[in-house]
């Protein structure tokens, strides 16, 4: 229950209050049982549709495969990756049918193509698994049937990417495949010896240099388990607890509901790491509440879109891409998490500050006490659900591997949730959680597999060896031009593919050039990662903002531009990582603490500069001055940072004095 019920009978005695509470609990239990029954009946009715049944069945098999691997770890790497991707392809062709919104709708002519794709996937799977040892022994010396099956599988991956990732990724894949096969027809630096179909299939399909390279490997090894962890947590009711906590923590502040959206989305981001998923999960509650207290609809949607997008950089779970970054860099995941702490804190403080300024501009009041949830009762009922997340955070920071950490956390979810009837998951709810996790994994895995085609094509053609010098030469040896090129590429790619796809593609094409240019290793990898993440709030195609606009009932583009303004710090930070790696914890602890302090002062300056309000409307010169202070505060020059901080506090006390004078005059 998100809001307190009216306690009119509170004064009639503790016995009556206890009786009312017992009735409320019985009503809640009855409601839950009724909802579960409706859910079960809904699932049973789906048996009239064999494809819907098949979708649920494949999802369960996929989940059980990963649970088995998590607790046994005895599956050989290529075999696990192939099994994972095969099941993902089946899920894709079932859940994204041609010409229909879902498998529940009546079949169309496109269903024939769906069935062909499903059959082809099964044929390849049977062929490989019937003699998997023999196939692996033939790697490098594939026979004719191996080549045919591999080529079919590559086509199936491209089709899955088309359905779930978008045409941009498919076009890139086709370009690099065409280059690999016909490179002798390409001009200039792209010219080279052509590769045969056998060679292409060998590198892209039969090795771990293409489709089954690091991205799909990480997805199969433990990213899926983190997706499952988030799905299970939400099904236990932990999401409601997080939202209630955020409301109580911020509800009595100026602009409380918007700040609650920021806090709840940050917490939920540690579980899901999905921008659109966060918008749907928390936005359906926070956006109407923001509108209710007076925030403009576009601003309300923008707050939720920005807060939800930040979930992908929020430690300790972050997005699937963070795990891929760790594997690509060859560093422990915990180091990537630590590197993200200051940027994540800066980003969420920036949104929090912008909301604070907007609420004072609009003279919005805090929530009333009766509108706040009874957090004490919620914690009594669901507080134990925090244990799995807390343990996950602790063991990750202790240095335990990501796979083992999340395996322990998943086991704890089942144990802890069973302690209370209200949080105990039924078999139906568990299956639903499995299915949602599998569906969430489809676009991420498809993007990873498609990006693997690009990587494999580069390896096959040998272009990967020459690419770093080629890109550096195209940039004229200029680091700023190279960074701007990377930014534009990341934003454009982010319009048509998930963050994982953006990062993997650029890790093959651009990141080696950034490292070669002398840029810090972490900054080189975080630079495209951040632009890939926040392309979801960057017009003209900003999916998180569009999703929030639908809930807010306002213009998508207007919400998109509001999101862009709110999240501007996220688009500026990557450049500051390059000149000041201490912001990514790439320095001693005292220096990192010092830079974090100056960074938070910079965020305050940016908020006032963008909104043009500091207790009153700011003149243009002061906004420009504040913008200049931001640049000085985020450089590694201590003298410049101290000077800018002094100027900021002079302005701070000036505005504080002006506010006191206005208050006295009123």
From TrEMBL:
Q: Name one Pfam family in it.
A: DctM
Q: TRAP C4-dicarboxylate transport system permease DctM subunit domain location, by residue?
A: 153-590
Spans through the membrane: 51-71, 77-95, 107-129, 141-161, 168-186, 260-280, 333-352, 385-416, 444-463, 470-494, 500-522, 529-552, 564-584, 596-614, 626-653
User: Which InterPro entries does the record match to this protein?
Assistant: DctM (IPR010656), TRAP_DctM-Dct_fused (IPR011853)
Classify the source by domain of life: Bacteria
Keyword annotations for this protein, in alphabetical order, are:
Membrane, Transmembrane, Transmembrane helix
Would you tell me the protein name for this molecule? TRAP transporter 4TM/12TM fusion protein
Organism listed in the record: Intestinimonas butyriciproducens
């Amino acid at each position: 229950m998100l809001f307190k019920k009216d306690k009119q009978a509170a004064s009639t005695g503790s016995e009556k209050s206890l009786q009312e509470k017992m009735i409320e609990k019985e009503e809640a239990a009855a409601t839950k049982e009724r909802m579960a029954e409706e859910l079960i009946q809904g699932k049973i009715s789906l048996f009239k549709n064999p494809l819907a049944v098949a979708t649920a069945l494949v999802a369960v098999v996929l989940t059980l495969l990963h649970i088995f691997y998590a607790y046994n770890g005895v599956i050989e790497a290529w075999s696990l990756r192939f099994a994972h991707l095969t099941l993902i392809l089946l899920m894709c062709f079932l859940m994204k049918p041609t010409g229909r919104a879902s498998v529940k709708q009546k079949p169309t002519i496109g269903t024939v193509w769906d069935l062909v794709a499903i059959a082809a996937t099964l044929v390849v799977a049977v062929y490989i698994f019937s003699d998997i040892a023999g196939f692996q022994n033939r790697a490098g010396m594939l026979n004719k049937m191996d080549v045919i099956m591999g080529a079919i599988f590559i086509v199936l991956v491209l089709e899955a990417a088309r359905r779930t990732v978008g045409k941009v990724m498919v076009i890139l894949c086709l370009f690099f495949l065409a280059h690999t096969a016909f490179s002798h027809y390409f001009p200039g630096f792209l010219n080279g010896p052509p590769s045969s179909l056998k060679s292409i299939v060998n590198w892209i399909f039969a090795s771990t240099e293409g489709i089954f390279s690091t991205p799909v490997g990480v997805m199969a090894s433990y990213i899926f388990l983190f997706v499952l962890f988030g799905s299970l947590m939400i099904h236990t009711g932990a999401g409601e607890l997080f939202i209630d906590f955020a409301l109580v923590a911020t509800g009595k502040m100026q602009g409380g509901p918007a700040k609650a959206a920021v806090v709840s989305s940050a917490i939920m981001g540690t579980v899901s790491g999905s921008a659109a998923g966060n918008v749907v999960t928390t936005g359906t509650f926070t956006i109407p509440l923001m509108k209710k207290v007076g925030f403009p609809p576009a601003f309300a949607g923008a707050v939720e879109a920005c807060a939800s997008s930040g979930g992908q950089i929020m430690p300790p779970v972050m997005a699937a891409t963070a795990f891929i970054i760790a594997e690509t860099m060859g560093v422990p995941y915990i180091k990537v998490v630590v590197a993200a702490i200051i940027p994540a804190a800066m980003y969420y403080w920036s949104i929090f500050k912008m909301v604070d300024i907007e609420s004072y501009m609009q003279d919005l009041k805090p929530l009333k006490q009766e509108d706040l949830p009874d957090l004490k009762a919620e914690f009594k009922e669901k507080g134990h659900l925090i244990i799995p997340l807390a343990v996950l955070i602790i063991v990750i920071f202790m240095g335990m591997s990501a796979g083992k950490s999340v395996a322990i956390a998943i086991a704890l979810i089942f144990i802890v949730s069973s302690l209370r009837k209200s949080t105990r998951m039924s078999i139906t709810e568990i299956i639903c959680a499995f299915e949602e996790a599998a569906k969430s994994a489809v676009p991420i895995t498809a993007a990873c597999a498609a990006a693997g085609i690009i990587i494999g094509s580069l390896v096959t053609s040998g272009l990967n060896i020459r690419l770093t010098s080629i890109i550096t030469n195209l940039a004229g040896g200029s680091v700023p031009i190279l960074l701007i090129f990377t930014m534009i590429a990341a934003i454009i790619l982010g319009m048509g593919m998930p963050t994982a796809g953006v990062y993997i593609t650029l890790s093959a094409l651009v990141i080696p050039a950034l490292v070669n240019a002398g840029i810090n290793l972490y900054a080189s990898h975080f630079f495209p990662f951040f632009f890939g993440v926040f392309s979801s709030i960057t017009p003209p195609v900003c999916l998180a903002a569009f999703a929030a606009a639908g809930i807010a009932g306002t213009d998508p583009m207007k919400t998109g531009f509001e999101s862009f303004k709110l999240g501007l710090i996220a688009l500026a930070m990557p450049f500051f990582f390059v000149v000041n790696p201490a912001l990514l914890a790439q320095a001693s602890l005292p220096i990192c603490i010092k830079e974090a302090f100056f960074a938070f002062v910079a965020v305050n300056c940016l908020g006032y500069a963008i909104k043009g309000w500091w207790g009153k409307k700011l003149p243009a010169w002061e906004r420009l001055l504040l913008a200049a202070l931001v640049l000085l505060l985020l450089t590694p020059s201590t003298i410049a940072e101290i000077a800018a901080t002094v100027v900021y506090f002079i302005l701070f006390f000036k505005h504080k004095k002006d506010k006191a004078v206005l208050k006295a005059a009123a």
